[in-house]
Design brief:
- The chain is an alpha+beta fold and 504 residues long.
- The protein has three domains: 3-177, no CATH class; 206-385, Alpha-Beta Complex (Sulfite Oxidase, Chain A, domain 2), CATH 3.90.420; 396-503, Immunoglobulin-like, CATH 2.60.40.650.
- It is 32% helix and 23% strand.
- The protein is built from nine helices and 19 strands.
- The chain has a five-stranded mixed beta sheet. Strands 3, 4, 7, 8 and 9 form a five-stranded antiparallel beta sheet that branches. A five-stranded mixed beta sheet has the order 12-19-18-14-15, with no helix packed on it.
- Helix 1 (3-26) packs across helix 3 (63-87) and helix 1 packs parallel to helix 6.
- It starts with a helix and ends with a strand.
- Bound molecules: the ligand Nc1nc2c(c(=O)[nH]1)N[C@H]1C(S)=C(S)[C@@H](COP(=O)(O)O)O[C@H]1N2 and molybdenum atom (MO).
- One of its GO terms (molecular function) is sulfite oxidase activity.
- Pfam families: Oxidored_molyb (PF00174).
- Keywords: Membrane, Transmembrane, Transmembrane helix.
- One of its GO terms (biological process) is sulfur compound metabolic process.
Amino acid sequence: MSSKRLGSIFGALAVLVGLVAGDLVAAFNSSWRSPVISLGNRVIDYVPAVVKKYVIEIFGLYDKIFLVSLIIFIVLAISIFIGRAYTGGQEKKAFLTIAAMLFASGVASLLDAQANLSSLAPTLVSGVTTIYVLRWLGAKKKDSEAAGGSLTRRELLKVGAILGAVSISASALGKALSQKTTVARERIAIALPKPLKFLAKPPADPALKIPGLSPFFTPNEDFYRIDTALSIPNLSVDDWSLEIVGMVANPLTITYAQLSARPVFELDDTIACVSNEIGGPLVGNARWLGVRLDDLIREAQPTPDADQIMGYSYDGFTAGFPLATLDGRDAMIAIGMNGEALPAAHGFPARIIVPGLYGYVSATKWLVRIELTRFDKKQGFWISRGWSERAPIKTQSRIDTPAPGTQISAGTVAIAGVAWAPTRGISKVEVRVGSASWRVANLAEVMADTTWRQWWIDWDAKAGDYIIAVRATDGDGDVQSEQYVPIEPNGAEGWHSVNVRVLV
Ligand SMILES: Nc1nc2c(c(=O)[nH]1)N[C@H]1C(S)=C(S)[C@@H](COP(=O)(O)O)O[C@H]1N2
Ligand SMILES: [Mo]
């Protein structure tokens, strides 16, 4: 095998094992990150600001997998370079390149939220492991050359298999450790406090009878997830606390036990992502349990010139909204979601929920600090990236069934979906099939203007191709306009429509 080829394999193996080792070490401390995650975090911090026009707010969704793959790809390319240099007799060049990678990774880890000097540990272990494996492979090569031959394919395969097995078991071990079983168990064991008055059970869910219609409450497992977190923060309630600081006369620090000992209440509220396209899935409805935010803020005594409430996440994300939003509406620090403690992906142990505002300006997950400040002093994470400073949720309606592009047989067909406009509520939903005139849809009974409303209509479908459109009227009497407006900078507008074919 050519020395170049062998060098590529050596380099890739050495760096791969090094990365796995770093990953494993990162599992031992909740404020340590694997080098790949730290590098990814920096990309998330800095890149969207540069290319804000092209990066949409859902950087968190599929783009995360893309980002991690991209970093691994680049690192592998560099590692091939390292391996070739090493086997080609340019050891100095190889070690200098490794040093440069370690430097980048080290700087990236020090910039992680909650980082301290010890956060360099995964990087250092990665580096030492990489160098060790590279030298070990080099020695193997020299041995076989001294014996008068060269490393055979068979020997190489054996070496590869050993390193592969070590990596796989190390990464499995790391995974098991980083599930931080204690926190997961702790979350399940939490007995949520009881509200003074439980909300009534909602009326019978029409989704039970209409296949394809979203249920009134979105199950936690199906609830959309949007955030910039490459790895979900693993917070234990034992060392969690919430600070309320900034422009306040009476700064507060509240532990989890203190928070859940306060009066709690339930709120049925639909939250939505500003990046939700017309007809999109980034919206969900839950019964939240939490503590009134206005009470806490009042207790902290904001100074008269404070005009913004900024939530800080454990991982550094921030979201701010006007102090004036607390106009008596049921904004809360939520600790429960649909009868359970907040799921880890949705902000355990606590997050903010403000009815009527998009998530990116309000719904801080893994909340650790609230700061009273001013709009002319501080901006939340997405504001410098091109999104509006103020962002009330716009009225939207969505057709859940029939799905776009489906073929259905003639006869009675249910057209159904959801419409939302928290906190204004939904007063009417209309449906138009083909060129027929708008028909008023049935609306599910709801108990609050903060939730979405399911709607449905029976359609006597005859053979042909149709476009079905929906539009909602909010509680103020404003009808959704047909004019399409893109999601950036403060939410999409326009009617959702689906095309269907009815067969005879
Ligand atoms: N810590 C943190 N909280 C966050 C975000 C984030 O990136 N990090 N994203 C916000 C956005 S943009 C939305 S739409 C909601 C989504 O909440 P969910 O994932 O529970 O549905 O969380 C908000 N809270
Ligand atoms: Mo969002």
